[in-house]
Design a protein that fits this description.
109 residues, alpha+beta, 2 domains, 2 helices, 28% strand
Length: 109
């Protein structure tokens, strides 16, 4: 077998692999995680309620909920039950900086 034949087979193999990769890429949507600000009230049995804010990287609201649950269960591993009331949930880029100063110029995250 000469080099031209080998080069031809290698070129064909590469083209076939590239076609397969393009077909695979077409099957998936490009998803980009963004930062979400989540303000919530946390109630763990036996302790007073805690109002808190966290930033979570996620693609959509369902992933935000999953990541928030993961974060809270890792912070409170011994809690049998954790009650969470979400006050506000939005992407960080969509938060208007003026809306954080709602009452007499005081900062409210």
């Amino acid at each position: 077998m000469n080099n031209n034949t080998m080069d031809s087979y290698a070129s064909k193999a590469i083209l076939i692999m590239m076609d397969d990769l393009e077909d695979t890429a077409d099957q998936f949507e490009l998803t980009i995680a963004v930062e979400w600000m989540v303000e919530y009230i946390l109630e763990v049995r036996g302790t007073p309620p805690i109002r808190s804010v966290t930033i979570i990287d996620a693609v959509d609201i369902d992933q935000v909920r999953t990541e928030l649950h993961r974060e809270l269960t890792s912070l409170y591993p011994d809690a049998g039950r954790i009650d969470v009331t979400v006050i506000r949930m939005s992407t960080v880029s969509s938060i208007d900086s003026e809306s954080m100063f709602e009452e007499e110029g005081l900062f409210h995250p």
